[in-house]
From TrEMBL:
Taxonomic superkingdom: Bacteria
InterPro entries recorded: Alkaline_phosphatase_core_sf, DUF1501
One Pfam family of this chain: DUF1501
Species lineage: Bacteria, Pseudomonadati, Planctomycetota, Planctomycetia, Isosphaerales
Name of this chain's protein: DUF1501 domain-containing protein
Length: 466
């Protein structure tokens, strides 16, 4: 299967369209315009006796796989080669301890439910990322299998497909990075077999950067709606030259995407959400003046603007992949901005009365090996990939905070209690958004495919021991 688009004009038509849209919108990749906004994820009040229907979901993705032992599942009684160099810190909830470099999140423990027995069987970044970000194993998975149109859709794409809306908003936004390294494009970021018109928007700018300006997302200065109409006419004229069935089908898809992009730009509805200068300095400082913090602040603003799913990638690709020098990297580079940014997000959502309406999920694609190791050629220890057990944290939208769900064994190697799969995580996300567990999507061969194969993690809402 091909990945991407083909048309009779080769790269020329694409470049014209990108200059006409993403060139001045500033969202980078062509996947931006494929975000046909059809998901209506606005909240509709609480469900009786269960989780609340979420207004939106913020998925904070720790690309590369964070160590559960250095974050939410420390093992202070284990031998040094398992325990590692970090101590633990008592949280605001008696009996719950986190690793020492998450002090702000420890203070927020009453809002958090930590699942310590997430588990699956793929130790390759790409395969594991697809599973966590779609709820399904990657079809035909092999080592470093890149994204393709045979993949399952990510959460935002499925929402876009199942919940049509016509207000010009995308069904989901991924920011601030696009997970790609060399020839490898990470799966789980796209609509897969649903087709390109359901791809989420990809924002590839650092919201903390000096060049990140709202003008990039509104009509540029001196660029009137009338001129926008002229560009639309040009793009439509180019599309009308498509003379093959496949090219015509793609032209129709682009036409739908263009129409909604024009509507969005003309209204400025989403553009205003990107204007972080509207936020008071003290709040921006609270999140942290770095990519992690400002991306999380932007996620909150996008949820407020009506976008149902925002994925914040904490890093560029494999940022949390700590095969060597793990303790310095976590202590100096990764844990402080994560701790500050996520804790500020939880405080901010609560202050705005949104925490009850927004599900926040913090997870990576897997954890790290329980035993420290030294890679060939390295002089400082790290931890390898470990999908057998890892942690994920949840808050908001009816989640009962102040609890730990599940228990890993004494080494942090395997679940000692019930394990939860990426399919269960997906079922939890979809139910929060009001997607029926029996929902189906149609694949490339016109076959109905069950979107949800796992079970929601009920303990998040009931507080019952597992």
């Amino acid at each position: 299967m091909r990945f991407g688009h083909q048309h009779p004009f080769g790269v020329v038509r694409r470049e014209v369209l990108q200059v006409g849209f993403s060139g001045f919108i500033g969202l980078g990749l062509s996947g931006l315009l494929a975000g046909r906004a059809r998901a209506d994820g606005a909240g509709s009040g609480p469900r009786t006796g269960g989780p609340k229907r979420a207004r939106g979901v913020i998925l904070v993705f720790q690309t590369g796989g964070p160590s559960h032992l250095e974050t939410f599942d420390p093992k202070p009684e284990a031998p040094a080669e398992i325990r590692g160099a970090f101590g633990t810190i008592a949280s605001s909830v008696p009996g719950i301890h986190f690793a020492e470099h998450l002090p702000l999140l420890a203070e927020q423990a009453e809002k958090l439910a930590v699942v310590r027995t997430m588990s699956h069987s793929h130790n390759n970044h790409l395969n594991a990322t697809h599973w966590v970000l779609t709820g399904h194993e990657q079809p035909g998975a092999f080592f470093d299998k890149v994204a393709s149109r045979t993949d399952y859709p990510c959460y935002a794409s499925a929402m876009t497909y199942l919940r049509p809306r016509e207000d010009g908003l995308p069904g989901g936004v991924m920011l601030p990075t696009y997970l790609m390294e060399g020839p490898l494009t990470w799966p789980g970021q796209h609509s897969g077999f649903l087709g390109p018109k359901y791809d989420p928007w990809q924002l590839t700018q650092d919201p903390n950067g000096k060049d990140f300006k709202v003008e990039n997302l509104r009509l540029p200065e001196g660029f009137s709606v009338e001129r926008l109409g002229d560009r639309r006419a040009l793009a439509e004229a180019l599309a009308s030259n498509a003379d093959s069935w496949h090219a015509r089908a793609e032209a129709e898809s682009f036409s739908q995407q263009r129409q909604q992009a024009y509507s969005m730009l003309a209204s400025g509805q989403v553009g205003r959400a990107f204007d972080l200068a509207e936020e008071p300095d003290h709040l921006r400082d609270r999140y942290g003046r770095h990519m992690f913090g400002q991306s999380l602040l932007l996620a909150r603003r996008l949820i407020e603007a009506g976008i149902p799913i925002v994925q914040v990638n904490l890093g560029r690709v494999q940022t949390w992949d700590s095969h060597a020098d793990i303790f310095r990297r976590l202590r100096e580079d990764l844990l402080p901005p994560t701790d500050r940014g996520v804790s500020a997000l939880l405080d901010d959502l609560e202050a705005r009365g949104l925490l009850d309406e927004v599900l926040v999920v913090l997870a990576g694609e897997f954890g790290r090996t329980p035993k420290l190791s030294l890679l060939p050629g390295q002089t400082i220890v790290g931890r390898d990939h470990w999908p057998q057990v890892f942690s994920a944290a949840f808050a908001g939208a009816g989640v009962r905070g102040g609890q730990v769900i599940g228990r890993s064994d004494k080494s942090g190697a395997y679940p000692a209690t019930k394990a939860f799969s990426p399919a269960d995580l997906a079922a939890t996300v979809y139910r929060a958004l009001g997607i029926d567990g029996e929902a189906e999507v149609i694949d490339l061969f016109n076959r109905p495919i069950r979107l949800v194969t796992g079970e929601p993690i009920e303990a998040l809402y009931s507080g019952e021991a597992v």
